[in-house]
Amino acid sequence: PLALGLYTVNAVYGDTITMPCRLEVPDGLMFGKWKYEMPNGSPVFIAFRSSTKKNVQYDDVPDYKDRLSLSENYTLSIKNARISDEKRFVCMLVTEDDVSEEPTIVKVFKQPSQPEILHQADFLETEKLQMLGECVARDSYPEGNVTWYKNGRVLQPVEEVVVINLQKIVDKSTGLFTMTSSLQYMPTKEDANAKFSCVVTYYGPSGQKTIQSEPVVFDVHYPTEKVTIRVLSQSTTIKEGDNITLKCSGNGNPPPQEFLFYIPGETEGIRSSDTYVMTDVRRNATGEYKCSLTDKSMMDATTITVHYLDLQLTPSGEVTKQIGEALPVSCTISSSRNATVFWIKDNTRMQTSPSFSSLQYQDAGNYICETTLQEVEGLKKRKTLKLIVEGKPQIKMTKKTNTNKMSKTIVCHVEGFPKPAVQWTVTGSGSIINKAKETKYVNGKFSSKIVIAPEENVTLTCIAENQLERTVTSLNVSAISIPEYDEPEDRNDDNSEKVNDQAKLIVGIVVGLLLAALVAGVVYWLYVKKSKTASKHVDKDLGNIEENKKLEENNHKSET
């Protein structure tokens, strides 16, 4: 490299400077010397080497004490390069007849430290020019230049907006420069989260280079321009009994800490922090809610709907009615939205709403009217009706000869609620039959039946009794030798009446023939004897051993 047409050596601060003597060694060389020139042009000799004695001498120059080295080819080396080494050095080769000189220019370079942004502002305020910070790059040679950047773009000076002041201070002992660039800046709201940095540009042995500082982000303060009110809720809908938390926020930095909340029905705003809580809200809390800054500026509003659901069941609770009565039932709904209503009876969902124009036993049960608002989570209401249908005992008796022709089945069909207790007796003797079998009690109905094989005609009585009434019905049954009209247990009432009439007719004919054949006294004696004998046979068929013993004792007494 050349400087002004002269040979130049570029050295790094602190390294060794190596300067070759660029002269050809002449014949008859006596010695070689190095000197440097003072600013006024006067020479200062620093090194001498004899070509014959091969000895080296260094002049007593304080700046270069113990730093110089002169090789056999007259190359001069200077250790620990300093800024003061930037001089014009001259190599001299001397013969008896001539002195040859060749100058060399030395340039020393020092890379500055990485720039730092010091004295940073705690925060920046919009519409206000203030000191952002100082970018400092130390120990540079030659002096460098500092440039400010925002988000990677160069900040150019703008009056009253961007003011940059660069100072360069040299250390007299080292000759190194420290560059300090201060930045005054008027931020805007958009500068929030902006990255500020500075770059120092300097020259090194190989040319121009740059070093960048670490970026810095400043807290930018700006006033609130808009307030926003919102409802904090885990659900998208609000129902009666919920808690409501209102939150008001401003878009300033720092955000406002206090607000005025305006509640429906309240004329004045309620001063509070940025949240306002209402607990266990009712439907009258529905309305428009507002909030503003404490100076009543920049207001925002939101509408809250508190959903509700009312259910009125008439009648409800436990209701007791008599069979055949009418019972109007109504389930009335009042809600903030369309509600879904359905009925459940005894844990089974009903297809239609219950309606009772004439109550039957099967209508009894537990009824639930339930309603929900599908769009509102957790909003459900239900009420219950426990319907009890009472009725006095009703009896219908049937009889039929079994297929084996060896016995007859007598059935007492009973209706009533509470469930009647059934008792069988034999008319005349008053004997109680304990071997009856009962069917399952369903919808207020059940049957009690006995199986007998009477040798003579008998009359059986079925007694059904509950808390409301005692009902008694009797049925004449012919001897086993006389077939009865077979009738299913589920025949209707008209058929049953016809069968009963036929049975009565047969019994009447038989009794008439007996009365016509016997005299009055004999008929009476035979009647008593036959009744006791028939009772004995019935009880024998039913397994009542004790009753048979009593009948035999009575017969014996009568005969005596």
Structure characterization notes:
The chain has 560 residues and is mainly beta. The protein folds into 5 domains: 8-109, Immunoglobulins (Immunoglobulin-like); 116-221, Immunoglobulins (Immunoglobulin-like, Sandwich), CATH 2.60.40; 227-304, Immunoglobulins (Immunoglobulin-like, Sandwich); 309-389, Immunoglobulins (Immunoglobulin-like), CATH 2.60.40; 391-477, Immunoglobulin-like (Sandwich). The chain contains 3 helices and 44 strands. The strands form 11 sheets. Strands 32, 34, 35, 36, 37, 38, 41 and 42 form an 8-stranded mixed beta sheet that branches. It has a 7-stranded mixed beta sheet with strand order 1-2-10-9-4-5-6, with no helix packed on it. Strands 14, 15, 18, 19 and 20 form a 5-stranded antiparallel beta sheet that branches. Strand 16 (162-170) and strand 17 form a beta hairpin. The termini are far apart. Residues 489-507, 522-528 and 530-560 have low confidence and may be disordered. It comes from Chunga burmeisteri.
